Amino acid sequence: MENMNEKMEKGTFPVIGMSCASCAARVNKVLGGLRGVYEANVNYASATVRVVYDPTLCTPANLKAAVQGAGYDLLVDVSSDNGAADEKRQKEYAQLRNETIMAGVLAIPIIILSMFFINVPEVKYVVWLLSTVVVAWPGRRFYISAWKQLRHRSANMDTLVASSTGVAYLFSLFNLFFPDIWLSRGIEPHVYFESASVIIAFILLGRLLEARAKQKTTTSIRKLMGIQPKTVTVLTESGEKCMPVGEVRADDVLIVKPGERIAADGTVIEGTSYVDESSLTGEPLPVCKREGFQVFAGTVNRDGVLCFRAGKIGQDTLLSQIIRMVQDAQGSKAPVQQLVDKIASVFVPVIMGLSVLTLILWCVLAPETGLVHGILSMVTVLIIACPCALGLATPTALIVGIGKGAENGILIKDATSLEVARKVDVIVLDKTGTITEGHPAVTDEYWNEQSPVLRNIFYNLERLSPHPLAEAVVSFFKGEHNLSISDYENIPGRGVKGCVNGTTYYAGSLELMQEHKIAIDGNLKNRAETWLHEAKTLVWFADTGRVHALVAVTDKVKDTSVAAIAELRKAGIETYMLTGDNEASAEAVARQVGIAHYRAQVLPGDKATFVEHLQREGHTVGMVGDGINDSAALARADLSIAMGKGSDIAMDTSMVTILSSDLLRLPEAVRLSQLTFRTIRQNLFWAFIYNLIAVPVAAGILYPLNGFLLNPMIGGAAMALSSVSVVTNSLRLKRKRIGVSTGQTDTPDRYDETTNVNNSINKNLMKYEFKVKGMMCDHCRTHVEQALNSIEGLKATVTLNPPVAIVECGHEPSLTDLQRVVTEKAGEYTLSK
After folding, report:
1. Average pLDDT of 723-746?
2. Residue of 336, 321, 324, 487 lying closest to 416 (CA atoms)
C-alpha cells in the first residue's frame, strides 16, 4: 500500500463544458472508470476535477482524451493559477451574457404580441419568426449540447431544455401551418412559441446569475492568488535589479522596500521592519522581523527595508502550499455528497421518463384535451425539474466555508475534516506551543559550586538535545565553547546523558535523577520546591554521584488561551491538557487557563493511548499539537489540528492547520464547521423539496382539483430561481462572523466587530522599540510590561529574549516619561533606544 501511495499523483484540472450536476456526474464516472485512476472528484461549483492517479498507468493526456470522449474538455496544460481556464471561462461568460441579452430583448415583444394580439392572423407569423431567432441563435447551445450527449448515449440538463423547448416549438409550428387537422376534430390549435422562447430566455438568465454567483464563491482563493507579487528586486554584483518573480532562484538575495510584498520564503540577513502577515495567518498586528527571522511570500513589508536570502520560491513557498491546500479542500467531497451524486447521475433519465408518462396519462385520462394539455405538462416537467440545485447545494457551501477559513488563517484539508469538526466533543491540548507561547526561557539557576568546566559540560549536553527546554538552556548559557560528548543518549521524556573524560553526566528531569539514584542535597531540594510552587519547569544537571546544578524554565501562557478554552467550554466541548512537564507546573497552567482535566509527565507515546481511551468512551476527539512530537496522537484523533506558523510537516499531517498561534481560532474552526453544514442542510432541503413539489404540480396533479395547470414559462423561471437561490444561500456564509468575543460569548459575532475596530485603530498606531536592561526572569518582564501598559493610549509588549519593549501609540513617546513610570511601578529597570 505504501508503494502504491508513493506512485500516486494528485492533480486538479479545470473542466470545460459542464452545464449541470448531471454533467459533473458523467465526467466523474468517466474518469473514475479509467485504468490507473484511484479517485476522481468533480466539483460542479468550481468546474474542476481533482484526480488521484498512477502516472505509470494513466497520464493527463489520457484524462483529457476520456473527458473529450464524453463530450466535454479538460485543461491539463495550465499553470497553477489557472490563467488559461479563467480566460476561457471569461469568454464563455461574455458569450452567455450576450446571448441572454439577445434572448431577453426578443422575448419582450414575443410576450406582448402573444398576450394581446395573438388573434390577429399576421401576428402569429411575426411571433414565429422572432421565436425562431431565439431558438436558433441564443438557444442553439442547448441543442448542440443535447446532441453531443445523445451521441455519447448520455443526457444532462441541456437535454431537458432542448427536448422541452423543441417540443413546444415544433408543436406550435405544426399548429401554425396545419390548423385544419385540429379544427376538423373540434380542437382550437394554439401556438406556444412564447413558451419556447421565454423559457430559453429565463434559463439563460438563470445560468448567467448562477455563473456570477459561482464566481463570488471562489473570491477567497482569488485573493490568495492575487497577493503573489509579479516582480521582485534582486541584489546582484552590479547592484539592484528588478526582474519577474519567475526568474528568482533559491539563495538569491532579495530587497523589499516599505509597502512592497515579499516574493519568496526566506531568512532576513539585514534590516529591521514590521511585516503584515494577516493574509496568511489572519492576525491583524504586524510582526517584527530582524536578522535571522523567517519571512513568507505574499506578506507586506510595512516600514523598514529588508534584505533576505530566498529559501523557497515559486510553487514551494508557504503561500503556494496554502493555495494548493485550499484548492484541494474546495474540490473534495463531504460524505453527504455521495447521496446527491447518486441522485444526479440518474436524475435526467428519470425526469425524461416522467415527462413521457405525464403525456401518456393525460392522453388516457382526458381524451378530448389530453394531447394539448399533455404536451404542455410534459414540457413543463422537463423544464421545471432541476438537478443543478442539488449539484450546487454542497460544493458551493464548502467552497465558501473553506475559503472563509483560509482568510482567517484556518486551513482545512478536505470536506471530511470540516464535517468532523462540528461533531467534536472533546479536545486534547498539548501544553507547550499550544496553550503556552512555546518559547521557554531560563529564569533562575543554582549551583552547588560554580565551575566553568561543569557549566560547559551542561551546555554541551543540552546543545545536542532536541527538546525545547534544552534550547532555553543553550540560549541562556550561550558563549560556552563546544566539546566532544561520547556515548550520548537522548532519553525520551526524561532527558539526556553523555560521557566526558570517562565520567557520565545527566541533564533532565527529577525522575532521571531518581532512576539513577543520584544524591540531591537540601539546598537544591528547597530551591526546587520554591520554583515548582511558581509553576516553573526544572532541569537538573548531575554526574553519577551528585546533582551539581538546577535551572528553572518557564513558558508564558498565550494571551488568548483563557478566552479560547472558555469558548470551547461554552460550546459544549470538554478540554484536556497533556504535558511532559511536572505535576506542579501542569497544575499551575491548567488552573490559570481554566482546564479541569490535565495529565502531567506524559510521554509522547502515551498521548495516543489517552486519545484512544477517550474514543472508547464514545467521544469524538480533536487533538491539537505541533504536528511533529504529537504525530502519533494526531494520527489517532478523529480531528487533528496543528498549531504554529504552518510548517510543511504540520500541514501534511494535520486535518486542520491553524497558521497563527492564536487558540481562539480553535472555537472559530468549530463554528465555521457548524455554519457550513447548516448551510448545506438548508440547500439540500430546499433542492429536494423544490423537485418533490414542482414535478407533480408541473405534471398537472392539481388540475382535477381546481383546474390549475402550470405555465411552462413559469416553470422555466422557477427552475432558474432554484439554482440561483442555492448559490445565494451559500454566499450568505461570507457575511457570517465566526469570531468569538473574549468577553461576552453569548454574542459570538462581537469578536469580529471588536477585531475590525482594533484593526482600524491599529492602522493609525506606530511602533517604537526600546531596549530594557535589568530584567532577569519572566517576573521582571511582566512587571515592566504592566507598568508600560498602565500609560493611557499606549500598548506595550515586552520580551525577555531579546530584552526589548515594543510600544504602540499614536505618536513617539517620551523616553523620560516611560522611564519614570517603569521606575515607579516596576523597579530599577533601564530603558534606552
Report:
1. 73
2. 336
Q: Which of 715, 724, 719, 692 is nearest to 168 (CA)?
A: 715
Q: Write out the H or E segment, with its range, that includes residue 756.
A: helix 750-762
Q: Is beta strand 795-799 parallel, antiparallel or unpaired with respect to 503-508?
A: unpaired
CA distance 182 to 162: 25
Sequence letter at residue 595: I
Question: Measured between alpha carbons, how far is 205 from 211 in angstroms, rounded to an integer?
Answer: 10
As a whole number, mean pLDDT of residues 380-389 equals 77
Of 186 and 136, more confident: 136
pLDDT digits (tens, 9 = 90+) for 409-419: 898 888 888 88
Residues catalogued as catalytic:
430
Number of Cβ within a 10 Å radius of residue 460: 22
Classify residue 311 by burial, with Cβ atoms within 10 Å: 0-12, 13-18, 19+.
Answer: middle
Closest CA to 571 of 736, 750, 416, 746: 746
The average pLDDT across 651-666 equals 81
Phi first, then psi: give them for residue 546, nearest 5 degrees: -155, 165
Q: 3-class SS at 105?
A: helix
For the ranges 298-302, 356-360, 440-444, 582-586, the maximum mean pLDDT occurs at 356-360
Q: How do residues 617-655 score in pLDDT, each as one tens digit? A: 999 999 998 755 677 788 889 998 988 654 455 556 678
CA atoms of 709 and 370, how far apart (whole Å): 12
Strand partners, 771: 804, 832
pTM comes to 0.66
> What count of Cα atoms within 13 Å lies in the side-chain half-sphere of residue 263?
25
Q: How far, in whole angstroms, is CA 85 from its chain's centroid?
A: 22
Report CA torsion sign: 816, 821, 823, 827.
Answer: negative
Residue 82 CB: number of other CB atoms within 10 A? 22
Ordered DSSP codes for 287-345 = EEE-TT-EE-TT-EE-SS-EEEEEEE-GGGSHHHHHHHHHHHHHHS--TTHHHHHHHHH
Identify which of 224, 223, 226, 171 has the alpha carbon closest to the alpha carbon of residue 195. Answer: 171
CA 612, distance to chain mean position in Å, is 27
Of 482, 462, 463, 470, residue with least CA distance to 442: 470
Pairing state between β 639-643 and 621-625: parallel
Which SS3 state, helix, strand or coil, does residue 2 take? helix
Cell of 263: 516574493
Alpha carbon distance, N-terminus to C-terminus of the chain: 60
DSSP one-letter string for 772-812 = EES--SHHHHHHHHHHHHTSTT-EEEEETTTTEEEEEESSP
How far apart are alpha carbons 505 and 457 in whole angstroms?
8
The CA distance from 519 to 541, in Å, is 11
Cell numbers of 66, please? 476520456
**How many Cβ atoms sit within 10 Å of the Cβ of residue 436?**
22
Residue 495 dihedral angles phi and psi, to the nearest 5°: 155, -145
Mean pLDDT score, 6-23: 83
- Whole-angstrom CA distances from 342 to 156, 278, 313, 331, 381 are 14, 41, 42, 18, 21
Return d(Cα 663, Cα 630) in angstroms, integer.
17
